[in-house]
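Worked Example 4.2. Consider the chain below.
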Amino acid sequence: MLITVNGENKEAPEGLTISGLLQFLKIQPERVAVELNLDIVKKDRYGTTPVKEGDSVEVVSFMAGGVWSKSTVWTKSTVST
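Applying the procedure from the previous section yields the following structure tokens:
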């Protein structure tokens, strides 16, 4: 079936759920949020929510970490670098 994932057309097997799609895409479900046709899908529904021909799926990854620059200055009302 043809679906859109993060703005790109992708061919995926028929009969997938959100969980199955994430597995097909090699994405860890615990590290993402999923939107199906503009609706956010709760994690406890990934296994029962079907993905159908023509659906639009957005997968947003959570990232941790970061580096503080020595030149970053925080003030009470503004941030400047």
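The longest helix spans residues 18-24. The radius of gyration is 18 Å. Compare this with Example 4.1 before moving on.
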